[in-house]
Amino acid sequence: MTRTHILGFPRIGAQRQLKFALEAYWRGGDAPALRDAASALRQRHWISQRDAGLDSVAAGDFAFYDHVLDHAVMLGALPKRFGFDAGNLTLAQYFELARGNADQPALEMTKWFDTNYHYLVPELDPDSRFDGGVSALVQEVEEAAALGHAVKPVLIGPVTFLWLSKSTAPGFDRLRLLPALVGAYQRVLQKLEKLGVEWVQVDEPALCTDLDSEWLDAFDFAYATLSHTPVKLLLATYFGSAAEYAPRIAALPVHGFHIDLIRAPGQRDTWLECMGPDAVLSAGIVDGRNVWRTDLRRALDVLGPMHERLGERLWIAPSCSLLHVPVSLDPEHHLAAELKPWLAFAAEKLGELSILSRALNDGETTVASELAAAGEALATRQRSARVLNELVRSRVAGATDALAERRSPFSARIAQQRELLQLPLLPTTTIGSFPQTGEIRRARAQYKRREIGAAAYLQRIRTEIADAVGRQEALGLDVLVHGEAERNDMVEYFAEHLWGYAVTAHGWVQSYGSRCVKPPIVYGDVYRPEAITVDTARYAQSLTSKPLKGMLTGPVTLLQWSFVRDDQPRAVTALQIALAVRDEVEDLEKAGIRVIQIDEPALREGLPLRRSEWPHYLAWATKAFRTAAAVAHDATQIHTHMCYAEFNDILPAIAALDADVITIETSRSNMALLDAFGAFDYPNEIGPGVYDIHSPRVPETSEMLGLLRRAAAVVPPERLWVNPDCGLKTRTYEQVEPALRAMVDAARQLRAELL
Ligand code: GLN
Ligand code: ZN
């Protein structure tokens, strides 16, 4: 019989129960209440898996904050700077590792491969020991087994664990820790074996990245050693193709492999050829990264030859953990009736696995009606008027490279812009959002509950905007913003106003810790039926004689932070979105807005896992941004903004965006990024963030002046802007006002020095 399993289930809960339990605990709640909430969630998720007919349930996919942190704890590999004993770690200490304490900053957080999930980066050095610590995994396995479930524990594999970690000792090669680390894994596997576990899933998604021979050798060593433990290992790869390494990996002494046939369907045959005669192959055939209902017919066509060849050595699963999709469609009462049957969130994906396994095991006739229903949903989707928009299609077809070119080169544009804007040397500005006050949140909640009407809501938002503009004038900033009071989220706000986009009520996905995002869904050709931000921008500009920046989210970020169509290339969807943003740029300009910012914080994270695919991605992403921006006349100044990432390796692509000004996060890296910008000789204007808005701390004038002087040493002062790192949404006015006052002061002082 073909077995069904999943690589992991969303841990946050359909109603974000984990988020609320965590936040209650952090506010001073008790640990037992948090543990109970977590246990209730796990039990519910296991029951969903069992009820869907899966052959095993996943354990170890849960985490209070992050599963990579849980591995560091379980292995005993905690940074010494905290002084914690991994073997006796308390819940409070666990959260200090994740969130920092009075003496120590938290572990660094970074993106999990190319997802929007953030993990905590384990810190290793030559003295790292792996003596073992508190193991949530073992407890979870016991808990599931006690409830009568067939349990398949899920672990991050040793090589990927090392790959995800960082060395805190300069020049230290963390691969040297491999033998000790593998020893710790052996002890974990022995414990699991004692609990009666048969199979353990060992995730090695690092195999879908570029690996050199030392890293590949690490797999040989690690799995040769682990093969001495009596459990069966299923080595799981996902987020891409591992075909390049298949001949080598398939020869490892493990009992099975999982491959991602959604991201990399082409690797099927390579794996079939390489695999030994006894190994299991788990086919990741249901999309774990997206929300579309599976084309069961196509899935069966892929699985058929595998089933024939492998028989019961074929397993089926989602492509990766379901951590990256919302829990269930059930509470989505407001989704269009036509749209809902096209979708499958985590719970619905479990049902799809069950249908596929019945089709393979008992014959397709036993699930004929289910297959027909899935086929019908797909057919409706393919011909729906909601999806296809001829106008958009023909516009995209006509979107030549010329459409992505500003009228004149930067040097000519900037001369016109300076003439029009009359800004001082080192102009000051902010990134867009101002503090989300209690008043804004109240107004939004009342409007949502229909306690106030649209007119009253608009009035209250306008009051906030007027307040933000007034404060900026008083502070003496040079280019003002309206403050984004009307936006709950920089992506969802636009999604609500664009055709081809749907927003969900409860489609939450964990981003990090208790933080969740609700990515909207691009289901059809994207079109902007009418202006979105123009009234707001016009109103804000009417309140001041200073230039006011129109504020837009860029096409790549709108794409990256959404669930997008799987029936056309991402590049095409990006271009459609770009044309919608372009229309908005054009209308803002017509309304007299002279500076327009198009935010692209997600540009970097869209980079493919394999470097060979970077040029293609960067080419279409750049074209999308430029297509959105290039409608602007020369005298209209286009800004962009980026943050939360390493930009050093994509500087040429950033320059190729050809924005007149880029404001960019730098203060956390203490301006290290600037050296790269200096060395690269970034051609246009640049505002390195001098105020770290991620901290409640109010920086001093002298501090920001120091950063600015460093910036002025690499960037010619006539091309330098002065601004914070990012939007001010998460801060309070008590923090923001003195910080901005000090920032404006710093700019004035440097100006005086330079003139
Ligand atoms: N304009 C947005 C803001 O200020 C930018 C947010 C971001 O970069 N993530 O909030
Ligand atoms: Zn930002």
Question: Could you explain the architecture of this structure?
Answer:
With 755 residues, the protein is an alpha/beta fold. The protein folds into two domains: 3-124 and 131-383, TIM Barrel (Alpha-Beta Barrel), CATH 3.20.20; 428-486 and 530-556 and 572-754, TIM Barrel, CATH 3.20.20.210. Helices cover 42% and strands 12% of the residues. The protein is built from 26 helices and 21 strands. It has an eight-stranded parallel beta sheet. A five-stranded parallel beta sheet has the order 17-18-19-20-21. Strands 3-4 form a two-stranded antiparallel ribbon. It is globular, with a radius of gyration of 27 Å. The protein starts with a strand and ends with a helix. The model has no long low-confidence stretch (mean pLDDT 96). Residues 431, 601, 641, 643, 726-727 line the site of zinc ion.
